[in-house]
Structure formats: C-alpha cells, structure tokens
Write a structure and sequence with these properties.
Blueprint lengths: L7 E4 L2 E4 L13 E7 L13 E2 L13 E2 L6 E4 L2 E9 L2 E4 L1 E3 L5 E2 L2 E8 L6 E9 L12 E6 L7 E7 L11 E6 L8 E8 L2 E6 L2 E7 L14 E9 L1 H4 L10 E14 L1
C-alpha cells in the first residue's frame, strides 16, 4: 500500500493538524486485496498489469483522439498514473489502458482514486468490459461504467450499466448522476461492489447508486462472467463533444492515484 505522509502543525494557541490521510473507503467486510497498482514505479505503466488499446476512428462514439502506447500519453510519475490527451494542430492523441488477460475478475470490490480533467470536450472514464463475449457482442455481454465524466458538466459524475435489455441505444440503460464538487480539482474515490445479486456504486465512501439483479435472463444480467478494467481519456464524441471542444485547450490530464481490487476470502 502507498505510504501516506502525516503533516501536523503545532500552533501556540493549541494543536492544529493538517494531514494527508488515506481517503475514506467503503471496502466491505470479508474482502481481501487481490490486485492493485499503487503506481510507485516511475516510467511506463507496469506491463504485467496493463495493456494498451491503440487506434482511432472514433471508437464507435465519434471521438477525435487516436489512442497510442507512447509515454507522452501515459506515464507513471511521482506515485501517479497520468493519462494525457494532447492536440497537435487539432489532431488529438490520448491513452486507453486495460487489464484484459492481466487482471480479470468475476465479482469483487473495485476502488480507483482519480482526478478528472477540466475542459469542455473531455470525456474520461473508468469502466469494465467482459473478457470474453460469452453472450454476444456489445451490449449483450454487458458493460459496467464505474465513473464517466464529460467536461461541459465539470461537477457531475455518471455511472451506468449496459446490457441487451438495458442500454443507452434504446434509452433503457440503468444509470445515475450527481454533483461531486471539485471533481476536476481534487482526487475523488470511485468504487463499485459487484455481487451476484447487485452492483453498488460509491463515491468517497458514500453509496451512490445500486442496480439489483432481476434474475430473469442474461439479457438483463450478463454479469456472471469475468470482466476487466479500463482507464481512458477521450476527446469529443457523441457525448463528450455535445457542446463542442474548447478551442484554447491543447492538453488535458486524467490522474490516477491507485487502483485496487478486493474479493471475498
């Protein structure tokens, strides 16, 4: 685990403590840490834990960026993973990292502490896709969005699931959003508990949204197969670009403090 430094200031009128503490966590009892990246080693992301998705052409959402495996777009520095989207004469590059075949899980508690970028046109996400498309291509085998953010709503955080019965293409996806003050200025802790009977989201240790397994078919609940984590920073697109892209923005960063995965003993 990453060491936290405690800074305390003694004032003559009394004792005042200003401390950088471990953020509030909602890890359920009986869960054990099974996988993590604390980003303690500077350089490229750990190849034993992360792979790259590379390419462009909008990725099905009309996005502008081309995802690369270059250090200019993803690097670990000073205990943080930095995903950088940058523009060169209007041509955007960025990064999309995944744990597929390096970290794949069925059920568990997933906790990511991150700071999303500020800037109209940005579209960062922390999400999960199935390792194998057991029930068919998207959305039949499911998608879990732990956190999504669009730059034109700087203090709004979204979370969703997509299945064959519930997805945004037909306007039925199960989703929630709320105001998280300082989402672009401070690190926030995004978490999701995935159980055979429900998926429960948390922000900064507080319950955010819950989706219960209706126990009908895999069209409603395909979430009984392995999924992997994805961290990415998109630019523009059908959602992120709905209000255009800031013409003055040349760079945006999504910064990740840690990624931790817990499962029942």
């Amino acid at each position: 685990m990453k060491n936290r430094i405690l800074l305390c200031v003694i004032i003559t009128a009394g004792l005042f403590s200003s401390c950088d503490r471990e953020p509030v966590s909602a890890v359920p009892e009986g869960m054990t840490l099974v996988w993590s990246d604390e980003f303690d080693r500077d350089g490229a992301p750990d190849p034993d834990k992360w792979a790259y998705s590379t390419g462009g052409n909008g990725w099905g959402n009309g996005e502008l960026q081309f995802y690369t495996d270059k250090r200019e777009n993803s690097i670990v520095k000073d205990g943080k993973l930095i995903l950088t989207a940058q523009s060169e004469n209007g041509l955007w590059t960025s990064a999309r990292l995944k744990t597929q075949h390096k970290g794949d899980w069925t059920y568990g508690f997933f906790e990511i502490r991150a700071k999303v970028p500020r800037g109209r046109g940005t579209w960062p996400a922390i999400w999960m896709l199935p390792t194998f498309m057991k029930y068919g291509n998207w959305p039949r085998s499911g998608e879990i969005d732990i956190m999504e953010h669009v730059g034109f709503e700087p203090d709004i955080i979204h979370t969703s699931v997509h299945t064959n019965a519930y997805n945004h293409k037909i306007g039925t996806h199960k989703t929630a959003h709320d105001t998280v003050r300082g989402a672009t200025r401070k690190f926030q802790t995004y978490a999701m508990e995935w159980d055979p009977d429900y998926i429960q989201w948390y922000i900064n240790g507080e319950p955010f949204y819950r989706f219960d397994n209706p126990h009908i078919s895999n069209a409603e609940w395909p979430f009984d197969i392995p999924f992997y984590l994805i961290l990415n920073l998109a630019i523009g697109g059908t959602w992120g670009g709905q209000q255009g892209i800031d013409e003055k923005m040349e760079k945006a960063e999504m910064i990740v403090d840690y990624v931790r995965v817990y499962q029942k003993n």
